[in-house]
């Protein structure tokens, strides 16, 4: 029996990433170009389960293939020290693989000092310690990518990082900062005047993926792992997935598990979708819903009455408020990644969210 190739686990990189080729290529180009490339400061924005963490990992892999090392952290207390330690660890790892061994054999003194300084510079501040590390890395022409997941402006160290990073950039260091966060966290962060520098970072929004991208990645995942899937079954899967990366993994995982032969049939997908919908509700919808304010919820309830596309004016009427008051909540929900606007109509951005609100 072949192992199930789908990865319905948060943070896990799937065997085939749907629809991210362009971003990864552009980032690769940026690492090749080095200082000055605007993509080196990027922020990835997306609702829960859109694949931010997985993308950060892939960007770090891309960086590694261009001779950069990565310090990957989450925005939590202790983050700055973590960045330093992860960077030192990555540098040591880099130096101890084949490349590094030869460098060590020739005995370039910088590398020794890299290890030496770790023990002696307890009293210098973060920027000083980072500057020393950059000096060592520069001598070997290694760039440093810092990735920060789950950004939040509530963390002082986030603000410190942003302002010190600005100096690194100004000093032409071979450095990159790629951050990721939920829409409202990112808006709060870039709206903060203390980190106005981040407003110029390249923002990448992970929205719904086109069905064609989902189908390609789904098919490749199934076939690489040794099963087949027919067009009907694939179409049914793509329909239920509705462009949502986490849903692709859930539907894929459950459909694969239902299949009793080397083909995933339309029936297998049907059963898989059923289970996936329940799991998606627990993993994404309920968590997102729990973060809404009572007025946000009223807005969503008014929207859900339409069962698809809504007009702001209708939503306002149902809420019993003026349109410009309702539009405040429209903005909040847009920012939270709960709704989206297409052709002037409002829609829920998370599959199944409308049904969930209706059934509550
Ligand atoms: N491009 C993609 N194509 C297919 N599946 C993906 C893609 N990106 C991520 N996934 C899958 O989607 C799920 C969610 O991914 P990930 O944890 O990266 O999301 P996230 O945006 O970081 O979520 P959260 O906001 O909760 O941290 C995982 O199961 C992962 O394997
Ligand atoms: Mg994540």
How does this model look, in words?
The chain has 16 helices and 9 strands. Helix 9 (211-224) packs across helix 10. A hairpin with a 2-residue loop joins strand 8 and strand 9 (345-348). It has helices spanning 21-33, 52-65, 79-96, 98-106, 109-120, 126-139, 156-170, 183-191, 211-224, 231-241, 245-258, 266-290, 294-304, 312-319, 323-335, 353-359; strands spanning 41-46, 68-74, 143-149, 175-181, 202-206, 228-229, 263-264, 339-342, 345-348. The radius of gyration is 23 Å and the shape is globular. It has a 5-stranded parallel β-sheet with strand order 2-3-4-1-5, with helices on both faces. A two-stranded parallel ribbon has the order 6-7. The model has no long low-confidence stretch (mean pLDDT 91). With 360 residues, it is of the alpha/beta class. The chain folds into 3 domains: 21-206, P-loop containing nucleotide triphosphate hydrolases (Rossmann fold, 3-Layer(aba) Sandwich); 211-288, Orthogonal Bundle (Helicase, Ruva Protein, domain 3), CATH 1.10.8; 293-359, Winged helix-like DNA-binding domain superfamily/Winged helix DNA-binding domain (Arc Repressor Mutant, subunit A, Orthogonal Bundle). Bound molecules: adenosine-5'-triphosphate and magnesium ion (MG). The site of adenosine-5'-triphosphate has 25 residues, from helix 2 and helix 11.
